[in-house]
Here is the input.
Amino acid sequence: MRPPVSVPALSRRAKVVIGAIGVLLVLFTAIGTLTNVYVDYLWFDETGFTDVFWTELQTRALLFAVAGVATGGATALAIHLAYRFRPTFRPMSLEQQNLERYRQSLEPRRALVTTAVAVVLGLFAGFTAQGSWETWLQFRNSTPFGRVDPQFGLDISFFVFDYPFYRLLLGFGFAIVILALIGSLLTHYVFGGLRLQTPGQKLTTAAMIQLSVLLGLFVALKAVAYWLDRYALVFSDRGDLFTGASYTDVNALLPAKTILVFAAIVCAVAFFANVVVRNFQLPAAALVLLLVSSLAIGVAWPAIVQQFVVRPSVNEREADFIARAIASTRDAYGLDEVDYVNYAQQETGEEVDATAALAELRNDTETIPNARLLDPNVLADTFTARQQIRNVYGFPEKLDIDRYTIDGDTQDYVVAVRELNSQGLSENQDTWINRHTVYTHGNGFVAAPANQVVGGQEGGEPDFTTRDLPTRGDIEVEQPRIYYGELMQDYSVVGAPEGAEPREFDLPEGSDGEGQINNTYDGQGGVEMGSFFRQLTFAIFYRERNFLLSSAVNEASKVLYVRDPMDRVEKAAPFLTVDGDPYPAVIGGRVVWMLDGYTTSDSFPYSEQMELGEAATDAITGQGTTPLPDETFNYIRNSVKATVDAYDGSVTLYEWDREDPVLQTYMKAFPGLVQARDSMPAELVSHIRYPEDLFKVQRDILTRYHVSDPGDFYSGNDRWAVPSDPTVDTQEPQPPYYILAARPGEDGATFQLTSALNAFRRDNLSAFVSASSAPETYGQIQVLTLPGNTPFRGPAQVQQSFNTNDEVARDLTLFNSQDSQAVFGNLLTLPIGDDGLLYVQPLYVEGTGQNSFPLLRKVLVNYGDRVGYADTLAQALDQVFGAGAGEAATDSGDTPDTGGDAAGPGDQPAAPTTPAPTPPADGTTPPPDQQSAVDAINAALAALETAQRNGDFAAQGQALEDLQAAVAAYQAAQAQEAQAPAAPAAVSPGG
Here is the structure.
């Protein structure tokens, strides 16, 4: 027998050092955690949402405690019982001799080891469980949907709220039993209750009883799992083209799961009976029978039915189940009341009926006048160049579209707020004092009508009707200061004692803009410093000693943090998924951020599962918009409209979808958090928009689930697809576009979100979908379906027709030079009347130099096979439909002047005023020499105009030389024709 190996003892000094290190680690961790929690609490207290903080904290703590105690306690109990009933005498076999050293080492520390194991497992289980706090709140506050699933006849709420919680309990039940079983086995093995290599009986009676009970519990839980698996069939993906129980699931797997429930119960009883019988042969036989049964009837039988019964006639066998999936998916994604309209325009390939089209255009008083020429995804640099004012200000990459009613006329605008952009601080400005106490806020609201640009010297620029500092214009802004916005990711320390000199930069001052006016924040937002303890708290939280040392931080100071509107709403309502594109609106003279909140679930029966982030991605996601999280879901509602005041940061949540059971469930959990829809001010309601991310999800679902017939759905003959954005090089989906237009069958223009849909794997147009943002018809989705036997042009084909047009191709060659580049704006699809779809696209030119920005230079129009390309929409419409067609366009009476310095900033030579030569008054054709000179003059004028637009001085000089030579040639030809020494009066390039 080998002598026992003793564990070396630690010296007193080593124990003190290790203990001190452990205490410091625990202390620093505790201080950091408590500081984070306290700062969180201060934010909730400031915003008035402390009930949310305490409800979430208490729920997390409850789940942590229950799961931790249950897991750690059950494991410790199992270990204790295994030790308590260990055998007193053990045969000293070689196996037991080897284990003796471990027994002697563990024996003095048994309680400590057991406690440590229990604590570690309890902490792990607690941390895991507390993350499921929403599952518990949903279960506890479950709200009926009022409709049942087609298979089990249970209310949908069982699957959405109850089933996930039962699965959570079952998972922890399995974990507890398995951990207890492992702990028991190890303890019995170490202390002799389990002898693997000793001849004779392998288990003591106590070990056999304990292991039988634990295995019986495990198999009993398996019976519960089989029972719950029956309900999980409504989420089955066995059907390749649809989600939910299939023919095989219902007719083969469902009966099999029911049989396995009883087989598992019998097996569990056999294990429990072994407490008395004390012979593992019976439970082992029952366990083998359960395994064989699960393979035979749970796996093999469904596979046989699928292969030999379903596959030969899938479309017939699965028809009823496909119909279930169609109905449930439409319900889950809010598409059960879509208005499908059979819509037909002229057939591609045939001549446009110009007379009929012209009549439609002249009768149209809503869509064409509001056709949008400003692309909010392109013009951020233009807004920055013309309205930034100071380097500390900035605009997001993607601007926003909203509508305002001015003097009785509703107009859509490209809007933005002039935010603080701390990334724009110069090197000498970038100190802690400047970054956090001086440059604290943005200032001003900027808006430009979306359907027009200015002419004259600044041709092609947005017509800023609300602009400058202080803000002035047709949209009245009483409080223009922006302390909360999309660009504000850092904290600010604001406020000062009464009578103190203001230190926050507010406005430039003076004609040169070099001076400044300061301001002191007096809003309700922000956490008050008030005391040294809070200063110390924020110093620890931000790891910044200036909270303690700087005179800018005093008892009157406030700290503004969590300043992004999305972050504020998600923090105030953690159960919401917030749309990635907040937009500013002026409500009652104040700038507020408007946001859309979604409630989602991944447990709606028979509904198709999607990845939220993937479904809501398009060609501009991430460029000024925030991608949604990559989480699986199959139910979504735009249940909440939220606002964040840009000055004081106050968050207000309004119940928008009154029939959403998920929102109603959370409103029970967080009473008073969400206000009633009726409390929304009318002015606020007038600015609501149908959210983009929801629309992108819905249009993706519509590409498949617009089909009602199960046979057609299975064959996929009428499947659609979201077109790729033709204006970018990537193959990402085309983003939806907000337009102000009249929908077929409706009187008057409404603000709506729209998208074209192609035929599947083809570039032909199949449908046009729009969702209304008008308060009286909000959320009504209309789909214009086009005849399937005619190849209507889709966005990519229209873009191709633009690019290959001779005039367009020539200009693109000129625009895409060393000094400039062409930028195509959004390709809008506009329904005209009852049978026409008009494509409109702005074309911008942007210099390649630093601080260049896009300017509108041309407008492209497509209708059928006809392409219009001109300086204005009115002229482009005239080209397509004939004279007078463009009269309805807003820019018909305000043609931009493309001369002078219209290409952009900087001094450029003025265009010569040489008039184009006129033909003879008698209508005869001029002589060949004169005609050649006329053509040369026109070509030189066109080249000069292009060079001026692009800011290309070398090209301008060459064009002027060519023009002068052409004019001289014309004069010489004219003089020769008249046989006179002097040419007729013509203005030279010099004047």
